[in-house]
Amino acid sequence: MHQTFDAVLGINLLHANQQGADQNRSHFDEWGITCFNIMSSPGAGKTALLECTLAALSDELKIAVIEGDMTTNLDAERLEKYNVPVIAINTGRSCHLDSKMVAGGIHRLEDEYNPSEFDLVLVENVGNLVCPAEFEVGEHAKVTLLSITEGEDKPLKYPIMFQEADCLLITKIDLAPYLDIDISQIAANVRQINPDVEIIPVSSKTGEGLEVWFNWVRQQTKVKNLGVGV
Q: Which superfamily, per CATH, for 20-221?
């Protein structure tokens, strides 16, 4: 059976991207940096979560952000006030960051700072529930956000994103009293696809659940960095 041209092209693109991702990860490992790839649909609360995370953890962890967006630097500007390096990448028509784009961000980090001083790089991917999950960027863990306003069925309709996640944040739970939504059903639908994923309900507005998320970040960063050179 012959594969279509589009199928072969897709396989080749993913293969080339994976090679770049492996190279990016080798740089992070060399420097003792943990990298998280943070993904969601538009408006699920990625930037708000990063604001809370930087406010809570930037005194104890040396953090840099690679901020992906299609056209503007609006999200990057929101994060710069936390006095951490924020490297903005505009993807143009591309609906996701790829390993080559993130490699450009890594080179900028290397040119402007001493990367071995950093503990954690947070990559905020472009808002999309499909493509970002397929294109690794060199991360050690994938973090997916799902807002309760998106409904209970999204994990079943967009399974790859949730299958690939190491941690799922169910966001905007402060809105639950105003919506006909069952957070436990969201979790159950995710578990059908990814039984082992860490699920953390959070609200960036009220702070509910954020300490659980912060502890997960601390643990993952500590575990990864303790493994450098082993």
A: P-loop containing nucleotide triphosphate hydrolases (3.40.50.300)
